[in-house]
Specification:
There is one protein chain. By secondary structure, the protein is mainly α. The chain contains 5 helices and no strands. The radius of gyration is 11 Å and the shape is globular. The protein starts with a helix and ends with a helix. The relative contact order is 0.19.
Length: 77
């Protein structure tokens, strides 16, 4: 797992993201419409792709794509 693959997975999951838009330093709430449904989609994608559980608090405490990635990386078994 690396951050580039993680970004690619996010861009594939969200139709309103143009491939190549996200960067590790991207503030995900500013890149696309952020709402509870998109949070659930992200949570489900992380569970499916990486078998890691993240929650709303993890997302709330994260600002950038790299922040979310670090949480996942810490929890990968």
């Amino acid at each position: 797992m690396n951050i580039d693959d993680f970004i690619t997975r996010i861009e594939e999951e969200f139709d309103d993201l143009t491939p190549g838009t996200l960067k590790p330093e991207s503030v995900f709430r500013e890149v696309f419409e952020w709402n509870s449904i998109n949070a659930l989609i992200l949570i489900a994608m992380v569970k499916t792709e990486y078998d890691v559980a993240i929650n709303a608090e993890d997302i709330a405490n994260s600002k950038t794509v790299a922040d979310i990635y670090r949480i996942i990386e810490e929890r990968v078994s």
